[in-house]
Write a structure and sequence with these properties.
- By secondary structure, the protein is mostly helical.
- The chain has two domains: 116 residues, Winged helix-like DNA-binding domain superfamily/Winged helix DNA-binding domain (Arc Repressor Mutant, subunit A); 34 residues.
- The protein contains six helices and two strands.
- The chain has a two-stranded antiparallel ribbon.
- The chain is globular and about 55 Å long.
- The chain starts with a helix and ends with a helix.
- The relative contact order is 0.10.
- The mean pLDDT is 89.
- Pfam families: MarR (PF01047).
């Protein structure tokens, strides 16, 4: 399907709805962790270890903010610093098993908090949601792979 005004509108609406749903879930769970914490752990889990500047960019925060965030995450033992194989003077940040567990626990809390809102969906509606998640996941994975390929060719 070529780009159409309808497709553009649906994608925009989907992004807004996803953000609203994430904010609502965070409020319902009463989580005191910054959304940047979960975003950072998620980036590291899906993309692997990376330098601080790249992590800041991926997590959409400034480098000084990421420095503080990483310090807190190291203290919590959710991330660790590892030597950069390409530059002995540099460090990369990697998620730890404890960080992966914390991220999964948070995701479980989010979904548990939202299940009551969706418990009356029909099987067809649940199937439509599953299909939507699969479509979005595959497009995001393709985009990440393309970005990585472009970065590697520079």
């Amino acid at each position: 399907m070529p780009e159409t005004p309808e497709l553009r509108q649906i994608i925009g609406d989907l992004v807004v709805a996803a953000h609203r749903l994430a904010r609502l879930a965070a409020q319902v769970t009463g989580s005191t962790e910054s959304p940047a914490t979960w975003r950072t752990l998620s980036v590291l889990q899906s993309s692997g270890p990376m330098r601080l500047g790249e992590l800041a960019s991926q997590s959409r925060v400034s480098q000084p903010t990421m420095t503080k965030l990483v310090r807190n995450l190291v203290d919590a033992e959710w991330v660790k610093r590892i030597a950069d194989a390409d530059d002995a003077r540099a460090w990369q940040i990697a998620v730890t098993p404890k960080g992966v567990e914390a991220l999964q626990t948070w995701r479980d809390e989010l979904s548990a908090a939202l299940v009551p809102m969706f418990s009356d969906l029909s099987e067809a509606e649940v199937a439509a949601m599953r299909t939507t998640v699969e479509i979005i996941g595959s497009r995001v994975d393709l985009s990440a792979a393309a970005s990585a390929a472009l970065a590697g060719s520079r």
